[in-house]
Amino acid sequence: MSVTIKDVAKKAGVGLGTVSRVLNNHPSVSEETRKKVLDAIKELDYNPNAIARSLKVKSTKSIGVMIPDISSAFYPDIVRGIEDIANEYKYNIILLNTDLKREKEKEALIMLKEKKADGILFISNTISEKLKRDFKKVNIPIVLIATKDDESEFYSVTIDNERAAYEATKYLIKLGHKRIAMIAGKKEDPNAGIPRINGYKRALEESGLKLDENIIFYGDYKFKSGYQNMLKVLKLKDKPTAIFSASDTMAVGAASCAMQHGFKVPDDFSIIGFDGVELAEYFYPPITTVKQPRYEMGAKGMEMLIKILQGEDVEREVQLDFELIERSSCKVKGES
Amino acid sequence: MSVTIKDVAKKAGVGLGTVSRVLNNHPSVSEETRKKVLDAIKELDYNPNAIARSLKVKSTKSIGVMIPDISSAFYPDIVRGIEDIANEYKYNIILLNTDLKREKEKEALIMLKEKKADGILFISNTISEKLKRDFKKVNIPIVLIATKDDESEFYSVTIDNERAAYEATKYLIKLGHKRIAMIAGKKEDPNAGIPRINGYKRALEESGLKLDENIIFYGDYKFKSGYQNMLKVLKLKDKPTAIFSASDTMAVGAASCAMQHGFKVPDDFSIIGFDGVELAEYFYPPITTVKQPRYEMGAKGMEMLIKILQGEDVEREVQLDFELIERSSCKVKGES
DNA sequence: TCACTCCTTGGAAACGTTTCCTTAAAAAAA
DNA sequence: TTTTTTTAAGGAAACGTTTCCAAGGAGTGA
């Protein structure tokens, strides 16, 4: 029913192979026949079938993108970066939300395997041992974004979380703050959790400030946990003057909580966030943050993947630069 | 190199068709042979090839999702809704950003055509005549989300923008506000622009309030245009006491501007937004808004598409309910 | 025992390409 | 002119499935 290469061949009075050749710009076809074929294609409104092509050439020009949750503010920019590059190279992306659930990750992987995705981009802050094992045996090139594995068995693009947290804390110290609380991520999170806590501790230590484990609070990066941890901060007798939050969303939660309880930001609390999401920028006061180059992380990951697919070799672990963006949520301690 | 159905057949000592039958749970295969085949599959670690299957059955189980920009806060939730339903029915989604550019829309459509997407979900607030024409001749089922065409030639899922704007304005009026400005969308936008302006006007009119075209400001739904339009509001001698914004992001921009200039929200200005994005919820003060059921719009659109693909008939134009969410950015006029 | 059904099964054909092998024709060389 | 080389073109085979048709065998009823 739909018009195929065969119909075109017949119409143009040439062979099958010839049509295929003009379709793929093979050199050895005379100008004359090329024209005939092109005319036939136009006339019949022929449309190539990428599925049939894929079956033969064993490449689908599709990339699987596994992500915890596209509706979580951190991810869309990454995906945009991925798609832009993919598009440039004529690849498509298949988007899969996993919610970090083992079951969904497994299903997603199976789907991608069956649909013969040429490669996979895995975006997350954690990667489980099981998934790593699955990844290793699936035999599809994979690049990790915003996470990496300790053994460096996978390609990855990340930022230096430890140093970023260090810089953020250092920034607060530079402003004169001596008692700095941290609203951290998850204790067991090897990317957004631990390294950021370590960076915070190192900055304190290096500046000769006392580390008080009681003012490190653990959250899940979301608004509510920022808000609730701030509640705890407000109950402290010896309140900190500054807060480093491991996510912008928690920072905003903390700021909201403070303001709702009659405190001022940055007058009573200087707050610095992490990630660089829109919310931090548009909040009032705008939240100082260390921005992860999300778009670039996606773009870079996709570029690496394409290179891998083309057989070029690429650096195994890429670290992109973060950026400390000064806004209005932090001020010099004591100044009014 | 990779193991196929043929290898399985050989190993199990059965015919090709038989393997295919157990793979597809056809009834007519004895328990005994089914077992043999299953064993062979396990032993060889056989993995079906969806590409080959698609070629034969003429269905890829892939849905194209065309969206202006996934990194714009309005869209991710919609996509999440889509993907959840898709996933449930074993479909995959191919995500394409179009930036509302004709060229990219065209390319995306061609890609989807070649890759034989079973259906398309088009998300936007506008759809151009040209694209409509392309859609009509492409012969792939299409559902529009968050937009519709005047002629009702396409399936669509939207909300009643006029009524939503009406309710929002009415809400402000009920609070006692008499002079209500609007920060509107684009004058030529047939979905998020015009109807919302009309709803605003109707509410005013119906309540006997004077319509002042000078306090309708036009923006592009983004923060900056909210901020800048608010600047104009602040210059007015006869300032409004309330503002209805056609997007949350503009509402937040307006609120930021007001607060930065020493005004208070909601004391000096009651502000109501539109969309129900996270930013409005987490802003301080939290912004009252009329929430579009974005997740549900995506989910519903996908459900409709699946039904269409299964040959069931479905309602042509579906309107989902919006919800006015009261938060802290609006208060009774005059009250302190 | 024979004729009929019904249930399983095997395998060829088809889906729409690309690629490789041939061959015909044209061009170049002798 | 004849031989050799080059170029253009045709078409079969293959990619990995599904589906359809034919057929063997077992069961059933008379």
TrEMBL record, chains A, B:
SMART domains: HTH_LACI (SM00354). One of its GO terms (molecular function) is transcription cis-regulatory region binding. The keyword Transmembrane does not apply. The keyword Signal does not apply. Residues 3-57 form the HTH lacI-type domain. SUPFAM superfamilies: lambda repressor-like DNA-binding domains (SSF47413), Periplasmic binding protein-like I (SSF53822). Keywords: DNA-binding, Transcription, Transcription regulation. This is Catabolite control protein A. The lineage of its organism: Bacteria, Bacillati, Bacillota, Clostridia, Eubacteriales.
